[in-house]
Amino acid sequence: MTQDIFTQLTNSLVDGDPDAALELTQQALASGVEPMAIIRQGLMPGMDIVGQKFAEGEYFLPDLIIAADGMKKAMDLLEPELRARQQSIESAGIVVIGTVKGDIHEIGKSLVATMLSANGFTVYDLGVDVSKDRFIAKIKETGANILGMSALLTTTMTQQREVIKALDEAGLRKQVKVMVGGAPVTKSWAEEIGADDYAEDAMGAVHKAKKLVGKA
Amino acid sequence: MLRPKLNVLDESLVRQMIDEALQLLVDPGVRVHNDEALRLLDEGGAHVDADRQVAYIPEHLVWDALSTTPKSFHLYDLTGAAAVHYGGDEVHFDPGSAAIFILDYQTGKQRSPVTADFVKFVKLVETLPQLDAQSTAMVCADVAEEIGDLYRLYLALNFMRKPIITGAFRKDTWWVMKEMLTAVAGGAAGLASRPLTVFDVCPSPPLLWSDLTCQNLIDCARAGIPAELVSMPLSGATSPVTLAAAITQHAAESLSGIVIHQLSNAGAPIVWGGSPAAFDMREGTTPMGAAETWLIDAGYVQVGKSLGLPTHVYMGMSDAKVLDAQCGLESMGGALMAALCGANMVSGAGMLDFESCQSFEKLVIDAEIIGLVKRTIEGVAVREQPIALEIMRQMGHRADYLAHPHTRKWFRKELYIPSDVIDRGSLDAWEMKGSKSTVERAHDRVNALLLKYPPSPLSSELRDEIRQIATRAARQFGMEELPTLPE
């Protein structure tokens, strides 16, 4: 029975059925399965298979994102249970991410957030049009060690520089690695504004985030 | 659902071309350098000048022949499953055939192909889902020239599963090829009822049936092996320069072939095919990448369809000598045009330098072209009703369709997803993978695909049997043993 529910949980992510992932997690908890076992033996193997299939060219972004959605739904249920047991799962890193003020482009940023989260990062996605104060407040609140900022316009990319300045002023610059991205963003721009790295796409962002926190 | 479709002739022009073609068969008539065909034509009611070897074919003979010609037929793979449907507007692709050179990736130069090259090619075709059939794509230089045709088929039969487009270079070797095919089909009945092969038969422009090709045509008809007419007017050289006249000449040659074929065995399957070219007036060559070549092809396909016949073209090739931009643009242009015309079999993948040179790397690049082209002619499908209302009202103004199950449900059906030969990654991702060119990526894919080649379904008994048949033929031409088969 227990073995069976783990397999079903794994399959719910691989088959892209987030509602099933949620329902199975509820069932497992109700029948007394430990939350840590649900994560390690049910959910993580599913995410590993999805990642593997993506790397092999069999799976694509929609498969990845829908699996990450199932994972998130399950984790929302499991996190309070873990806290109640004074347990926690080791995160690859804590990321605060958002599109800068004045810019409402979402897709690229959301993709990076999803991919980071699917790769073991704890991700706080602030959405679009995010002011520097909101970035700063969230970093303080979560103890994040990575900040990701997206800008799709040449007119808004200067905001990335403003946020980095604000980090300095708030004394947070040493605590967080800063990654920037978006269509107009280049390596030289990243260097110019004092960011730690930049990425061209979501997979590149995961690769570089792991490097920045020493997990690659 | 509307399927993208191209017509290049209006209906009255098609009718006029057929009418003029019929008149050409009466005057000046068709040269037929084959006694058996002349006898069949004579007995069938044509006026035959035996001394000059010219047949004057009256119109009613043509209509009689067309009335018994099948509108469609299937080719079967080596396991006996239906794999290719000649008929309607179904479009299939196979590699260009009978290359006498191969473009060597390591040296960048053309050289003569040998056994190992062709075996590798056959395996590669098996691994490429975009290709629907094999062809006897290369003539191997390591066997006696006289068995060049049957040896290709022998090699292919050992490694293929897909059906194969082939042809004979001699009258006597056709029988050896038939013997091997009969063995593989488990007897003469299987050979005709579940054909694995199509034989190309090529009239010589203008209006000539050579002894060899005419005999192949008659023999195919009698065995029930599908024949594919490959009429090849060269506009301005062996046919009039106007495209309309070249298409008319093609029709006359092809109609005369159908008459000989149906007189040999009424009801035998035959394909309205060709390989014309708009003769190059500066170089004196036969360009496959010329717009006018494509128009002649498109025109004769339309004529063939108006007669209700299965069709074939030689398109999707290039005149370039290396895998460069010319090579890509000419191959894509021809392949797209062929598919839009609804040609049932499009031969040419892998080929460059007119019709003389094959390339593994071009084959996998062409497979991507074919993928794009096949997707294009599938058109815009209505997947669900209503088309957009339900999903768009559910999503409102949110942009995250990427995360919606609707996307996951449909994207594989809606999108043709290319292999790594086509680069759609970011600059960063491309650089991380080594900043490789199309040809370098194609070479990587050739090697990767060959590792995935599935084992051939042919039994060891049949392998022995066809080796004996091929070896017997080789010995007639002074070659004691055939080269050892590669693994």
Sequence stretches where pLDDT stays below 50 over 5 or more residues of chain B? none
- Count up the helices of chain A: 9
* Biggest interface between chains: A-B, 19 and 18 residues
| Major sheet summary line of chain B | 5 strands, parallel
Q: Key features?
A:
A: 216 residues; alpha/beta; 2 domains; 9 helices; B: 487 residues; TIM Barrel; 5-stranded parallel sheet; 17 helices
Per-chain topology:
The complex is a heterodimer of chains A (216) and B (487).
Chain A lengths: L1 H13 L3 H13 L4 H21 L5 H24 L9 E6 L7 H12 L3 E4 L6 H11 L3 E5 L7 H12 L7 E5 L5 H6 L4 E2 L3 H11 L4
Helix pairs in contact in A: 1-2, 1-3, 2-4, 3-4, 4-5, 5-9, 6-7
Chain B lengths: L10 H16 L3 E3 L2 H10 L2 E3 L4 E3 L2 H10 L4 E4 L5 E5 L5 E4 L5 E3 L6 E2 L3 H13 L6 E2 L12 H12 L4 E3 L4 H15 L2 H6 L3 E5 L6 E2 L1 H13 L3 E5 L2 E2 L7 H22 L5 E5 L2 E2 L12 H16 L5 E3 L10 H17 L3 E5 L1 E2 L4 E2 L1 H19 L10 H7 L9 H10 L12 H6 L5 H13 L9 H17 L11
Parallel strand pairs in B: 1-12, 6-18, 7-20, 9-10, 10-11, 11-13, 13-15, 14-16, 17-18
Antiparallel strand pairs in B: 1-3, 2-3, 4-5, 7-8, 19-20
